[in-house]
Amino acid sequence: MGTDDKIRNKAKELKGRAKKNVGDATDDRRMQAEGRGEQAEGSMRQAGEKAKDAGKKVKDAFKK
């Protein structure tokens, strides 16, 4: 589950970055905004996954 989520989140971030770049090239403000939003969502979800991983490491450290 974790790896699949990380891949999906990274894909969303990259899709957002691409959409923003197309919006920049075509001067389409709506596409720029959508791209920034998708990029931010992907980044935030990745941060959440990293926090979960860190929590698991702490939990595992106390089990030993």
Descriptive overview:
With 64 residues, the protein is mostly helical. Helix content is 94%, strand content 0%. It has 2 helices and no strands. It has helices at 2-26, 29-63. Helix 1 (2-26) packs antiparallel against helix 2. The protein is rod-shaped and about 55 Å long. The model has no long low-confidence stretch (mean pLDDT 91).
- What's the total helix number? 2
Which stretches are low in confidence, meaning pLDDT under 50 for 5 or more residues running? none
Summarize the amount of helix as a percent range.
Answer: over 70%
Q: What is the H/E order?
A: HH
| Number of E strands | 0
Task: Give the rounded overall mean pLDDT.
Answer: 91
**What about the largest sheet?**
none
Structural class: mainly alpha
Query: What is the strand content?
Result: under 5%
Quote the distance from N terminus to C terminus. Answer: 24 Å
Describe the oligomeric state of these chains in a short phrase. Answer: single chain
What Rg do the Cα atoms give? Answer: 16 Å
Shape: rod-shaped
Topology:
Layout (H helix, E strand, L loop, with lengths): L1 H25 L2 H35 L1
Helix pairs in contact: 1-2
Summarize the structure.
94% of the residues lie in helices and 0% in strands. With 64 residues, it is an all-alpha fold. It is rod-shaped, with a radius of gyration of 16 Å.
Offer a few descriptive terms.
64 residues; mainly alpha; 94% helix; rod-shaped
